[in-house]
Amino acid sequence: MWLRFEITGPEGPPRAEERILRESLVLGRSPSSDVVLDDRRVSGRHLLLTRAGAEVLAEDQASVNGTRLKRGSRATGLAPGAPLALADGDVLTLGRLTVRVWIGSRAPAEVSPPTDEIPLVDVELLAGSLIDELPTPVPAPPVLDEAALEDQRRALRGHLAAQEVEQRLAEDTELKALHAQLEEWQGRERAALATAAESRRRAEGLVAEVVDGRQAVVRLEAELRATESAAETAEERGRRLAQRLRQVEDERREAEARCDELGVELPPLRARWQQLMDRQAEDAARIASRRRPPGVS
What we know:
Mean pLDDT: 83
Structural class: alpha+beta
Helix content: 40-55%
Number of strands: 11
Largest sheet: 6 strands, antiparallel
């Protein structure tokens, strides 16, 4: 199955590529892709095209920016893992690029890549075909003089020189474009190296922060264990104090009960004590009156 891709982007001229789809083709930014798309918003392996009988299925490979399919006035997004059959002339949007897909059948020889080898020509067959194409009878070749031949040689040399100059100019232009592209790539490489160095510095800083954080966590865990031990000691002491407090409360209640009992027993005792004191006073008065000599009042 023959596929033709017409690729259009915001930068650079449109380009067309032709491929033969035998089993599958990958479109993406990676150089290993079958169709390389030079756009930073295109993933390395962005889109997979597979052949299913007479159909071509397109499947997004979980790309970062996704893939959209436009068919006529209708547009839809391709979900990863959900292949969608393509039709002739469909337009795919990958990043900032639009890829129009033409589907057809063509012999492999018709789309074989160009080669720098010079094909071998069957001279006899070519001569025979040329003779067959000549009119009958063959007219006699015109007679040219040396001056006309020299003019033709000079014209041919001028034409060849002009072609050589044009080719050199084209090569110079292409070389300048390649130099410009090389400088751009070198600039991107320097920027990427600078970004990588900055990322490495940030990563080292983050690693140092993580190490400091782990050490702080270890210290906090040690402090937490010490605090838990102190809390357990304080809790045990609190339990002992609570037990002692319960004992004191029991003793206080017993003392209050004893006080109540004493409060009941004390008035009779006081009355008895007063009686004893009164009796003692009376006994002392009687004894004193007995010892007093007569006539002493």
